[in-house]
Fold:
Amino acid sequence: MNLIDTLQWRYATKKFDPTKKVDQKLVDQIIEAAWLAPTSSGLQPFKIIEITNQELKEKIVPIAYNQRQVAEGSHLLVFAAWDNYTENRIDTIYKYTTEDRGQEPNRYKDYTDRLKKSYLNRPANTNFEHTARQAYIAFGFAMAMAADLHVDSTPMEGFDSEALDNLLGLKELGLKSVTMLPLGYRDQENDWLVNMKKVRHPKKEFLIEIA
Ligand SMILES: Cc1cc2nc3c(=O)[nH]c(=O)nc-3n(C[C@H](O)[C@H](O)[C@H](O)COP(=O)(O)O)c2cc1C
Structure:
């Protein structure tokens, strides 16, 4: 399958077969794809929380307005973005950068000073909106990787993020949940969406060409 066929195959799964478990090796690859996603200034300002505990997944169902995919997928990935930028958060990734590339520690100081001047003087919420946008790119990568591995998934932002943050203790980690991605295998017989045509705006309306 090429990527377009794969993206035609994937859909926002409404019902997983709860008896089918995704192999951990495949989940690891899905997470790796998200890990490899590009981020603004390379800050990678988010984390993924991987949940397999059934009891915990069941507790998340009401937080997700009773969407059962959360509990019926074998793995639930929560994408959680930094609640704000801090000096330490910016310095940490640039410390890894210079170490991994064998560069002198101050190699990117002018650049990080500029970032700090701009980001640390903005409201926390403006920064969170920025970190969340980075998480969404990785979320897209994870979805595409899952489809490439023939693993079904549901992109989800239909949940009470504050309630989820409280349940998972994300506030203490300086994180806020942004999206969730349950992973599993479609219930071919009982998912009402499984055979429905994909609907998008007509391409000629979607694309604005400037020659
Ligand atoms: C950011 C985002 C949030 C979404 N939230 C939900 C959700 O909470 N529950 C759900 O069943 N589908 C959710 N969807 C799925 C969309 O409704 C679906 O992707 C869209 O209708 C296109 O259909 P397709 O993904 O099957 O191609 C979400 C999709 C995205 C990208």
